[in-house]
Design a protein that fits this description.
By secondary structure, this protein is mainly α. It has a domain of 29 residues. The N and C termini lie far apart (67 Å).
Amino acid sequence: MRSLAHSTQDSTVEIQKIIERLQSLSQTASDTGKEAASKTIEAAASTDEKLKLGGVACCAY
């Protein structure tokens, strides 16, 4: 019985570590996606502004 309890405890700890790692990777992916979206929006706004300065209307928001 002690061996089974010890194995169960070890497995529980290992599963918790896996969950924590997955949560960390998920957060990193989310942050990266948000950063990429923000840069895309900035680039689009910059392009729109340059086109407007050049006398060409681009995008209606």
